[in-house]
Amino acid sequence: DVVLGKRVLEAGDAGILSAVAVMGRIITYGGSAIVTVLLPMTAATLPEDAPAERADAPKRARKKADRLLALAFMIVGGTGAVCLLLCFFFSVPVVTILFGTRYLLAARFLPEFGLAMFFGSLSTVFLYHFLAKLSRLFLVPYTFVTVAFIASFFTTHPTIHSIVRAELIANVVLFVSFLLVFVFEKYRNIKNH
Question: What predicted TM-score, i.e. pTM, was given to this entire model?
Answer without folding.
Answer: 0.83
